[in-house]
Amino acid sequence: MEALLFLVLLGAACAAAEDHKVVGGYECPMHSVPYQVSLNAGYHFCGGSLISSQWVLSAAHCFSGAVQVRLGEHDLAAAEGTEQWISASKLIRHHQFNSFSMDNDVMLIKLRSPATLNGYVQPVALPSRCPVANEDCLVTGWGNTSANGSSYPDRLQCLRQPIIDDWLCRYAYVTYFTDNMVCAGFMAGGASSCQGDSGGPLVCNGQLQGVVSWGYDCAMAQRPSVYVRVCRYSSWISTVMGSN
């Protein structure tokens, strides 16, 4: 797996991962993605999705010792008056997370106090079914916007992209692609999530179907971005939230 560049979002100070951002996208309309959160450790290092007033779903590779969850953000460099900054009280990685294969790359974060839900902060629905090929989805994040360099935006970026057939993902990644993963993007390349987007949401028809996990470079032809297939974790999510 040495050839695989994990598209993670932990930044230079966190050697465990690299951050992931949207290449070929556009600035999201302000506060149009109220479930998007920024994980902060003195700097933005990963994304996440608010799934209830007190829980965030992110990627296991985004685990960090001290995390502040920032909600209601659009421009990370500006005070917009809509932000809620809440410390994490628990970070719970999936018990079968494999940092080499990136299988089960999912994590739940419990907020120290519930978020105030309003027009700027709202949870996203968990999936009632699994995604289907060619379904139109939205990926968002503050990750790298340059496929060949480093350009990290302050303002939230959006990209609409389709779910890719599983057989194409298996062809692209052979044994590294598992049933717990789903690909989305464009086989021709040119646009994708990237470093700094890790842990962030892939939302299809109003449901959280993916968590940004890994890939090979950014926006590269025949190497689509790989996401956690959230529909396979419904029981795990329910169990963890119920017991914590």
Can you give a write-up of this model?
This protein has 244 residues and is mainly beta. It has helices at 166-173, 234-243; strands spanning 26-27, 36-40, 44-52, 55-58, 68-71, 84-93, 107-111, 136-141, 157-162, 181-184, 201-204, 207-214, 225-229. The protein is built from two helices and 13 strands, in the order βββββββββαββββα. The relative contact order is 0.24. A hairpin with a 2-residue loop joins strand 11 and strand 12 (207-214).
Number of strands: 13
Counting helices, strands and paired strands, the structural category is mainly beta
Strand content: 25-35%
Alpha carbon gap, first and last residue: 35 Å
Low-confidence parts lasting 5 or more residues at pLDDT below 50?
1-21
Shape: globular
Strand order of the largest sheet: 1-9-8-11-12-13-10
Q: Outline the biggest β-sheet.
A: 7 strands, antiparallel
Helix fraction bin: under 10%
Rg value: 16 Å
Query: Helix and strand succession?
Result: EEEEEEEEEHEEEEH
Secondary-structure map with pairings?
Blueprint: E1 26-27, E2 36-40, E3 44-52, E4 55-58, E5 68-71, E6 84-93, E7 107-111, E8 136-141, E9 157-162, H1 166-173, E10 181-184, E11 201-204, E12 207-214, E13 225-229, H2 234-243
Antiparallel strand pairs: 1-9, 2-3, 2-5, 3-4, 4-7, 5-6, 6-7, 8-9, 8-11, 10-13, 11-12, 12-13
Task: From the structure above, extract its key features.
13 strands, 244 residues, 2 helices, mainly beta
